[in-house]
Amino acid sequence: MSLTVDDQLLEKALRDEVDHASFIACVRESLPYAWEVISGVATRMRDGGAGFADNQTPPPDEHARGQLLRVLASDAMRGALERHFGVRLAFQNCHRVAAFDLDADGAADRHACFVSPRAQLLNQSPELVDC
Protein backbone atom coordinates (compact mmCIF):
# COMPACT_ATOMS: atom_id res chain seq x y z
CA MET A 1 0.00 0.00 0.00
CA SER A 2 1.39 3.40 -0.96
CA LEU A 3 -0.27 5.62 1.63
CA THR A 4 -1.45 5.25 5.18
CA VAL A 5 -4.82 7.00 5.12
CA ASP A 6 -6.48 7.79 8.44
CA ASP A 7 -10.22 7.36 8.86
CA GLN A 8 -10.95 11.10 8.76
CA LEU A 9 -9.15 11.60 5.48
CA LEU A 10 -10.80 8.52 3.99
CA GLU A 11 -14.24 9.80 5.04
CA LYS A 12 -13.46 13.17 3.46
CA ALA A 13 -12.37 11.45 0.25
CA LEU A 14 -15.59 9.45 0.19
CA ARG A 15 -17.65 12.67 0.53
CA ASP A 16 -15.77 14.99 -1.85
CA GLU A 17 -12.38 16.11 -3.08
CA VAL A 18 -9.48 16.16 -0.66
CA ASP A 19 -7.67 19.49 -0.27
CA HIS A 20 -4.04 19.80 -1.31
CA ALA A 21 -2.71 20.33 2.22
CA SER A 22 -4.39 17.18 3.55
CA PHE A 23 -3.10 15.08 0.67
CA ILE A 24 0.45 16.46 1.04
CA ALA A 25 0.37 15.73 4.78
CA CYS A 26 -0.70 12.15 4.05
CA VAL A 27 2.16 11.69 1.57
CA ARG A 28 4.70 13.25 3.96
CA GLU A 29 3.61 11.03 6.87
CA SER A 30 3.23 7.84 4.81
CA LEU A 31 6.44 8.08 2.79
CA PRO A 32 8.98 9.89 5.01
CA TYR A 33 12.08 8.76 3.11
CA ALA A 34 10.66 9.86 -0.24
CA TRP A 35 9.56 13.16 1.32
CA GLU A 36 13.05 13.74 2.71
CA VAL A 37 14.75 13.10 -0.65
CA ILE A 38 12.34 15.23 -2.66
CA SER A 39 12.22 18.11 -0.20
CA GLY A 40 16.02 17.98 -0.09
CA VAL A 41 16.49 18.28 -3.85
CA ALA A 42 13.86 21.03 -4.02
CA THR A 43 15.64 23.00 -1.28
CA ARG A 44 19.08 22.52 -2.85
CA MET A 45 17.66 23.55 -6.24
CA ARG A 46 16.38 26.83 -4.79
CA ASP A 47 19.50 27.47 -2.70
CA GLY A 48 21.93 26.62 -5.49
CA GLY A 49 20.52 29.08 -7.99
CA ALA A 50 21.18 26.81 -10.99
CA GLY A 51 17.57 25.71 -11.44
CA PHE A 52 18.61 22.09 -10.85
CA ALA A 53 19.57 19.71 -8.05
CA ASP A 54 19.59 15.94 -7.81
CA ASN A 55 20.07 13.06 -5.42
CA GLN A 56 22.52 10.36 -6.41
CA THR A 57 22.67 8.55 -3.08
CA PRO A 58 21.03 5.12 -3.23
CA PRO A 59 18.33 4.45 -0.63
CA PRO A 60 19.51 2.70 2.53
CA ASP A 61 17.21 -0.30 2.00
CA GLU A 62 14.43 -1.74 -0.16
CA HIS A 63 11.70 -0.16 1.96
CA ALA A 64 13.11 3.31 1.26
CA ARG A 65 13.59 2.48 -2.42
CA GLY A 66 9.96 1.40 -2.58
CA GLN A 67 8.86 4.74 -1.17
CA LEU A 68 10.61 6.61 -3.97
CA LEU A 69 9.20 4.31 -6.61
CA ARG A 70 5.64 4.64 -5.27
CA VAL A 71 5.66 8.43 -4.88
CA LEU A 72 7.16 9.07 -8.32
CA ALA A 73 5.09 6.45 -10.14
CA SER A 74 1.82 7.98 -8.94
CA ASP A 75 0.59 10.88 -11.06
CA ALA A 76 -1.43 12.21 -8.11
CA MET A 77 1.45 12.11 -5.63
CA ARG A 78 4.11 13.31 -8.06
CA GLY A 79 1.91 16.17 -9.27
CA ALA A 80 1.05 17.20 -5.72
CA LEU A 81 4.73 17.26 -4.76
CA GLU A 82 5.64 19.29 -7.85
CA ARG A 83 2.95 21.85 -7.01
CA HIS A 84 3.86 21.90 -3.32
CA PHE A 85 7.58 22.48 -3.91
CA GLY A 86 7.19 24.51 -7.13
CA VAL A 87 9.47 22.21 -9.11
CA ARG A 88 9.45 19.77 -11.97
CA LEU A 89 10.62 16.34 -10.82
CA ALA A 90 12.51 13.83 -12.91
CA PHE A 91 13.56 10.30 -12.04
CA GLN A 92 16.22 7.87 -13.29
CA ASN A 93 16.85 4.31 -12.20
CA CYS A 94 15.51 3.57 -8.75
CA HIS A 95 16.86 6.51 -6.79
CA ARG A 96 18.16 9.43 -8.85
CA VAL A 97 15.58 12.13 -8.24
CA ALA A 98 16.09 15.61 -9.66
CA ALA A 99 14.25 18.88 -9.18
CA PHE A 100 14.15 21.55 -11.86
CA ASP A 101 13.00 25.15 -11.96
CA LEU A 102 12.08 25.26 -15.62
CA ASP A 103 12.00 29.08 -15.53
CA ALA A 104 15.69 29.30 -14.58
CA ASP A 105 18.23 29.97 -17.32
CA GLY A 106 19.26 26.72 -18.97
CA ALA A 107 17.08 24.55 -16.73
CA ALA A 108 14.70 23.49 -19.51
CA ASP A 109 17.67 22.25 -21.57
CA ARG A 110 19.16 20.51 -18.54
CA HIS A 111 15.78 18.83 -17.87
CA ALA A 112 15.49 17.68 -21.50
CA CYS A 113 18.99 16.19 -21.27
CA PHE A 114 18.26 14.50 -17.91
CA VAL A 115 15.12 12.76 -19.19
CA SER A 116 16.61 11.73 -22.53
CA PRO A 117 17.18 8.09 -23.50
CA ARG A 118 20.90 8.89 -23.78
CA ALA A 119 21.06 10.09 -20.17
CA GLN A 120 19.17 7.04 -18.97
CA LEU A 121 21.60 4.72 -20.75
CA LEU A 122 24.65 6.60 -19.48
CA ASN A 123 23.30 6.41 -15.92
CA GLN A 124 23.38 2.60 -15.87
CA SER A 125 25.82 0.52 -13.89
CA PRO A 126 26.03 -3.13 -12.81
CA GLU A 127 25.13 -2.11 -9.23
CA LEU A 128 21.76 -0.80 -10.45
CA VAL A 129 20.65 -3.84 -12.45
CA ASP A 130 18.23 -5.04 -9.76
CA CYS A 131 16.94 -1.71 -8.54
From TrEMBL:
It comes from the Bacteria. This is SCO5389 family protein. It comes from Actinomadura napierensis.
